Amino acid sequence: MLMVQVYLFTSKAANRDQMRQLQERLQALGCAASAVQLVDVSEQPYLAERFRVVVTPALVKTQPEPRQVLVGSDLLEQLEYWWPRWQAAENGQTADSTPSLASLEEELTRAKLTIQQLTAQVEFRDQVLELLAHDLRNPLTAVGIALETLELTPDRPDLAPQLLYQARNQVKTLDRLIASLLQVSRNQQNALRINPQAVPLPEVIQLVVQSFQAQLTSRDHRLHLDLPAPCPPVFADPDALRRVLTNLLDNACKYTPPGGQISISTLHSTNLKIQVTVADNGSGIAPADQERIFDPSTRLENRQNQAGYGLGLAVCRQIVQAHYGRIWVESESGRGSTFHFTLPVYRP
Ligand code: ADP
User: Where do the TM regions start and end (predicted)?
Assistant: First the structure.
């Protein structure tokens, strides 16, 4: 009998029916239930890393050797195709040629995946840039109207201060939009290039906090840190992690009035995950917006820009998800916001 050992990688986004069908098919083919291990990537991110699984669902065959990774929406068909070949390889019929064929197939799959990821990044950027370009028009039109009115009403000097004030405000909005535009292009180049490694979380938090010292002092914010020791290292990309923390702390400063309280804490909730929390007692976020703020397109369509362009949190979510983590907010309007995100614990 063919001794097969497979891992089935799944996630919240993966199609549950497909996973069930795969499990049933494996059993029908004679694969022992104990030889099929179902892995939820958010629970066991180190396994995803070990087998270099970057999308789900994925099927990883570890036995018989060589290891092979199958991904894509047609996993069942791929299994039907490969099963007899694994069998043949096990029986020694094509033992010489199969490994190289398998590795070629694996290479091809990786290349396809890379293309998919790059296409998704380009699509995301195109969408964001289109919306940003669209929204640049509004303040520009408003500045134009204010200046034109000024020009056409020389006999109304009383209107001038108000018109100039409006124009100046719109110019500030334009400035913020352009800054966001630059940020998108920078983030899009780097956001998903995750290079995870063992990172000492409290040290990274301290470094980010230090970079905010001037901003915190100028707004008279009190900062409370609760970083219980010992804290195991997280498995993360240090630059990406800094970017998430910087964004959350920046928002906490922006949306908390002077004299307010901001806190950062870590919670080693399970031996697989660490939860980081950034809380403030600022303006808070209405329930209807609490999910939307992470979505670039929704915010861009609906929001007249006040304090930023609403892309920071979208990028934060992208980064956290690339670490198989989760980011969310708990908030009550007028009473502050608490952002949480999770990261995998590094396991050597
Ligand atoms: P930006 O701050 O540039 O608009 P973000 O994506 O960082 O973009 O945030 C999206 C929106 O979420 C903000 O515009 C703001 O309305 C809301 N928000 C984010 N953080 C907070 C916070 N700490 N308190 C209140 N509102 C917040």
Answer: none
CA torsion 211-215-218-220 (nearest 10°) is: -90
From ligand 1's centre to the CA of 43, what distance in Å?
Answer: 29
Residue 2 predicted with pLDDT over 60: yes
Domain count, the chain: 2
Same domain membership, residue 254 and residue 340: yes
Three-state SS at 139: helix
State if pTM tops 0.70. no
Q: 146 and 201 share a domain? A: yes
Protein residues whose CB sits closer than 6 Å to any atom of ligand 1: 247, 251-252, 255, 280, 282-285, 293, 307-313, 337
Tell me if 176 is assigned to some domain: yes
Q: Tens of pLDDT along 9-48?
A: 887 656 778 888 899 999 898 888 888 998 888 788 888 8
Query: Do 75 and 129 belong together in one domain?
Result: no
